[in-house]
């Protein structure tokens, strides 16, 4: 017992003064603030990584390359981030990068042939339902991935493109969310310039509108096909079956394809 008492007595005692207590509290707070600030910084790159059409250069690709002089609203720093709800026909998808929708701006036009391969640069491999290409607002070609994860570069070859100047909207529909990624490409097919020819008519019995997707969110005016019928959304909708909408429902029946 005496030995124990002597050893305890020999230990130095540190007094916890008010000043030292304050310093300790400040140190703990500083560590907590540092952790909170560092956490979102480390997550930012993956949260903003998705994909865009890089060949032929899309509008956001031109912004990123600095080949346009007008305001790009910050898309030059993140061309992969043009993300919005499925079903939009806007170059921005209805997202914050609205300058991408402005056809009056001097967007560079790329000359291509009637058959051309379009390339997506993918920075996050989201499971994919479909890739869609619209020529001047008309569905031209759909590629179905069936929920697969794409590689870092995706190539789609479009054949039979109409001659002349066109705006091609590329839409990447994600399989497990209601979101899609958008890119518009300004092209001159055939190099002749002048007035564009009309896109080819769809085959009889084939709808030009994209197939209805139960997971997609559609804005008013969006058109879809479903079981051989053609429908237009009257307002925002998601998960409402077009054929069950009825006269007063969200979907307007435009007749058979």
UniProtKB/TrEMBL annotation:
Record-linked Gene3D superfamilies: Carbohydrate-binding module superfamily 5/12, chitin-binding protein cbp21
The record, for SUPFAM superfamilies, names: Carbohydrate binding domain, E set domains
One Pfam family of this chain: LPMO_10
* Keyword terms: Hydrolase, Signal
Q: Does the keyword Hydrolase apply?
A: yes
Gene Ontology CC = extracellular region
Q: Which residues form the Chitin-binding type-3 domain?
A: 209-254
One MF annotation (Gene Ontology) recorded for this entry: carbohydrate binding
**Domain of life of the organism in this record?**
Bacteria
Q: Which GO terms describe its biological process?
A: carbohydrate metabolic process
InterPro entries for the chain:
CBM5/12, CBM_sf_5/12, Cellulose/chitin-bd_N, GlcNAc_Chitin_IntDeg, Ig_E-set
Instruction: Return the protein name.
Output: Chitin-binding protein
Q: Which organism is it from?
A: Myceligenerans xiligouense
């Amino acid at each position: 017992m005496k030995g124990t008492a002597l050893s305890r007595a020999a230990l130095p005692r540190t007094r916890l003064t008010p000043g030292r207590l304050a310093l300790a509290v400040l140190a703990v707070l500083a560590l907590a603030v540092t952790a909170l600030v560092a956490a979102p910084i480390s997550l930012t790159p993956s949260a903003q990584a998705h994909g865009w059409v890089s060949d032929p250069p899309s509008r956001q690709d031109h912004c990123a390359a600095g080949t346009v002089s007008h305001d790009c609203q910050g898309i030059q720093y993140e061309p992969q981030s043009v993300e919005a709800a499925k079903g939009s026909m806007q170059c921005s998808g209805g997202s914050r990068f609205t300058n991408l929708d402005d056809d009056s701006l001097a967007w560079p036009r790329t000359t291509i042939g009637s058959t051309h391969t379009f390339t997506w640069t993918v920075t996050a491999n989201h499971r994919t339902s479909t890739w869609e290409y619209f020529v001047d607002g008309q569905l031209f070609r759909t590629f179905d991935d069936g929920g697969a994860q794409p590689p870092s570069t995706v190539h789609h070859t479009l054949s039979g493109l109409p001659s002349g100047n066109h705006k091609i909207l590329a839409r990447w529909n994600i399989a497990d969310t209601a979101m899609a990624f958008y890119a518009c490409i300004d092209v001159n097919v055939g190099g002749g310039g002048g007035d564009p020819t009309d896109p080819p008519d769809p085959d009889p019995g084939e709808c030009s509108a994209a197939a209805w997707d139960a997971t997609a969110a559609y804005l008013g005016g969006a058109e879809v096909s479903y079981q051989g019928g053609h429908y237009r959304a009257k307002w925002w909708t998601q998960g409402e079956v077009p054929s069950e909408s009825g006269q007063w429902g969200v979907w307007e029946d435009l007749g058979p394809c």
